[in-house]
Design brief:
Two copies of one chain form a homodimer. By secondary structure, the first copy, chain A, is mainly alpha-helical. Chain A is 61% helix and 3% strand. A two-stranded antiparallel sheet of chain A has the order 1-2. Chain A starts with a helix and ends in a 7-residue tail after the last helix. The first copy, chain A, binds a DNA duplex through α2.
Chain lengths: 136, 136
Amino acid sequence: MMKIGELSKVVGCSVQTIRHYEKEQLIASAERSEGNFRLYDEAAVEQLLFIKHCRSLDLSLPEIRQLLALNRSPGAQCDDVNRMMDRHIEQVEARIQELTKLNKQLRMLRRSCSNRRTVEQCGILRNLSATPVSSG
Amino acid sequence: MMKIGELSKVVGCSVQTIRHYEKEQLIASAERSEGNFRLYDEAAVEQLLFIKHCRSLDLSLPEIRQLLALNRSPGAQCDDVNRMMDRHIEQVEARIQELTKLNKQLRMLRRSCSNRRTVEQCGILRNLSATPVSSG
DNA sequence: ATAAACTGTATAGCAACTATAGAGTCAATC
DNA sequence: GATTGACTCTATAGTTGCTATACAGTTTAT
């Protein structure tokens, strides 16, 4: 059994994050030592790694909670998992599209000013004051 | 002179947002009527549109505050504006790269499970329990 | 006079942590 | 046995850019 500091090093996330996950019910309340310190076993390590992996894929804490729940009922159909992943992929792709469009607008705006001008002549500021650039 | 509700309709942002911008010092404290209502003129409309345009480009409120300050000193060099834009563009492009990588991983993961399996057989959950997918 | 619509301030909530304060616990050293 | 240092505990505030709510006051229309 290890204390929270060791667990934090093993899985590579901060002590506060672990306590946060406990409060958010992503991991069960840990056993406590006589002195009220949290105690963890190998199962806790695995679960935290699972969560960490999900987070690296930008899954939200509620989504992860749902996955963990599904994981606990192995006989259930996994359609829910698939639906969640599909929705998540859609969101990521939508965000990429948004940012790509944004990037074009920013580059266009940036081209409207070279250095060494005064603010008064600055094409960027002038353009920002005008009507928003069209999306084309 | 118009009240905050009218301004909100004219520029297309919520009343709370306008009050929020005032608190954050993006716009000056508005004049008040006898009954303590905020009163705005055309200049306020223009400034809010400027802010709205910047926000549509995902500039942060501190960045916008800085641009507004520069706008007020028209003789200054606009290098700062250019630097800010460059940094911002870099950030957006970095985020696009991150999300693109993420998207690949998610799609790979999604392919590991088709519908109608049980959770126990679900490739997604199995993969999430394993070591994080490599970036390649 | 009254009701509806608007405005005011203050406060909490979102997401997923991070940082801080102040107190208690534990192991090692003097 | 006292002290030091490293660790842990809880509770709370801060991050970002709003949004939503509660409750009170103002204005406008009927």
